[in-house]
Amino acid sequence: MTNIRSIAKLAGVSVSTVSRVLNDHPYVKEEKRRKVLDAVEQLNYIKNANAVHLSKGKTYSIGVILPYLNLPYFGEILQGIAGEALKHGYHLQLFQTDYDRGAELDAFHRLQMKEVDGLILTSRSNSLDALASFISPNVVFCENVYDPTYKKVFIDHYQGIRSGLEYLYSKGHSQIGLCLHRTFGTNSEERIRGFFDGAEAAGHPVRDEWIFNDCYDLQDGRDVLSEWERMEEKPSALIVTSDQVSAGMVAEAGKRSIRIPDDLAILSFDNHPLSDALDITSFEVPIRKVGEEAFKLFLESEHPDPVILNTTLFERGSV
Amino acid sequence: MTNIRSIAKLAGVSVSTVSRVLNDHPYVKEEKRRKVLDAVEQLNYIKNANAVHLSKGKTYSIGVILPYLNLPYFGEILQGIAGEALKHGYHLQLFQTDYDRGAELDAFHRLQMKEVDGLILTSRSNSLDALASFISPNVVFCENVYDPTYKKVFIDHYQGIRSGLEYLYSKGHSQIGLCLHRTFGTNSEERIRGFFDGAEAAGHPVRDEWIFNDCYDLQDGRDVLSEWERMEEKPSALIVTSDQVSAGMVAEAGKRSIRIPDDLAILSFDNHPLSDALDITSFEVPIRKVGEEAFKLFLESEHPDPVILNTTLFERGSV
DNA sequence: CTGAAAGCGCTAACAT
DNA sequence: ATGTTAGCGCTTTCAG
Q1: What is the pLDDT of residue A14?
Q2: Nearest one of B215, B182, B185, B188 to B104, comparing CA atoms
Q3: Nearest CB to B113: which of A48, A110, A115?
Q4: Which residues 6+ apart lie within 8 Å of A114 measured at CB?
Q5: Number of compact structural domains in chain A
Q6: Which residues touch strand D (CB under 7 A)?
């Protein structure tokens, strides 16, 4: 193993001088610098990152916690984080959880072990209480956690859903259903809250059986449509929190000769290219930006304000 | 900082005993074990991963090189790698390259610095020559690199395209186009080779303008369709290497009243849920399995045989 | 400007 | 069974 000591010996200088050269510190005579660099060249020396990490107490890498990797949502947020991290010389460590609490805790354990300098939670499995003792300014949430000392960036889902409802009401719908990823988790709860508040404000009824859960992908959307078709009392419009799911519904509707939006209107979220291709009215959700902002928050040393991002409606033909 | 030494002191034992307890080594008297564990508890001790990494010369983490994170293909392969890695106690470090050569080289640099124990290339930007000096048994390729000493897992794209051609010929098509991600890179070259070989074997012509590049997502598919519509001499069928692109084509065809498959047949690859939803005939490509196998290859110490995976046709309505 | 030396925190060979 | 000790390879203070 060729280490800093061997090159010091070969260059005829001390290890600290070598270290200075390697880290572009000033105050090294040009002659010695050359000798060191020559020795590095000659011995094919490569710095050992782990030694640096140990010595510095930092790894310049940040962990990202996410449930799944094969969903566009997480790919996009990851892309946002990765881009920003790269700019600042940080690397990404992935913690895929499948929404398993233990897997999530493991990530926090890695943080404590200093394997990563920080953690971004793109989604969360454990309760905040369970996590409380691990949370530091190096931890960033992508949801509206209520503790004001926690760093967070999130989409205003509450307002998003309310705007969606308003829009559907204005189009004459009053029987409206909701299609969600899951019912727990802050983001989902905010959506549900927006849904009920909005309905109440407008004086329209909400039916529990019009709320569909566990909708992640295309197939789920197709299943929901089948279910919808079998219902006695059908909603005339559905707010769907993912374009993937909406796409499944639209595709299935085509097969079953269900007319969109006449028989069923669909108001979607994401504004993924898919929604444009399939002519689905959708709210743009700046997910990638969530990733970018999350990383920026991690870097901020002071207690930064939460970053709140908004959705924007793109009207197309599904409503 | 509470380290192994402080807990040794508190427990009244030596650091090596502490280390033994912490690593579940045998030969520690139950009494001392308890004392150590108590001290750990009391001081809230947490092992420093970097010290372990340095001491062991291993990090139990593997780097994954990929161009983009927001494409289903890479999400799926990542999911495969992550699942297998988790089973074996390894972590994932991400190197997103945007197909930038420098970014890719940086990943190899990290390998040399021992920041990761290995590297999986899901796609490659540099030439094999440029990479040659960095390649070791810790590097796994997801393509058919010809050097027999390199570890590799790949889809038999050559055969896949040839089967696709046969299928289209059998359906009466002879004017066939091809829609690719890119023209360089082993996987793409294999597809092109299959395309030309197949056409030649069947005695059918191939036209250069019927080969489309840079097709990654839905929008690209829509663009290709527009282009197709404007052509004087149109192919009657297109082989498309990604369901995302095919989906864009099908969606756009709907808008322009182009009949699929009557005006244009589409034979796709991936068998993504999208193809099922949109009734697109597609070859299943076991991408996730590529990821799983890639990780397994990394673990194999001997020179393992390359892993070759095959595609399977799912007939639907687009041909 | 440069070098000596004391860490960073853990592992493992060796001795007992 | 347990302790001593020499690393792992780099950074950084302190003295000169």
Answers
A1: 86
A2: B185
A3: A48
A4: A53, A57, A58, A59, B48, B49, B50
A5: 3
A6: A 1, 3-5, 15-16, 19-20, 22-23, 45, 47-48, 51-52, 54-56; B 12-17, 20, 27-29, 31-33, 51, 54-55, 57
Region of residue B92 (left: phi > 0; alpha: psi -120 to 50; beta: else): beta
Does some domain include residue A52?
no
User: Could you list the residue range(s) of the whole structural domain that residue B225 is in?
Assistant: 157-285
CB within 8 A of A156, min separation 6: which ones? Answer: A308, A309, A310, A311
Based on the fold, state whether residues A69 and A108 are members of the same structural domain.
Answer: yes
Phi (first) and psi of residue B281, to 5 degrees? -70, 130
In a domain, B319, yes or no: no
Nucleotides of D under 7 A from a protein CB: 1-13
CA distances from A319 to A169, A216, B59 (A): 11, 21, 53
A14 — contact with chain B (CB < 8 Å)? Answer: no
Query: Tens place of pLDDT for every residue, chain A, 319 residues?
Result: 788 889 888 888 888 998 999 998 888 888 888 988 888 998 899 999 999 999 999 999 999 999 999 999 999 999 999 999 999 999 999 999 999 999 999 999 999 999 999 999 999 999 999 999 999 999 999 999 999 999 999 999 999 999 999 999 999 999 999 999 988 889 999 999 999 999 999 999 889 999 999 999 999 999 999 999 999 999 999 999 999 999 999 999 999 999 999 999 999 999 999 999 999 999 999 999 999 999 999 999 888 999 999 999 999 999 9
Inside any domain, residue B205: yes
Name residue, tokens 């189009």: A171
- With an 8 Å Cβ cutoff, is A160 touching chain B? no
Output the domain CATH number for residue A69.
3.40.50.2300
Q: How far is B200 from chain A (nearest CA, A)?
A: 36
**Joined tokens for residue A277:** 């291709």
- Assess A46–B contact: CB distance below 8 Å, yes or no: yes
Residue type, B81: I
Q: List CB contacts (< 8 A) between B295 and chain A.
A: none
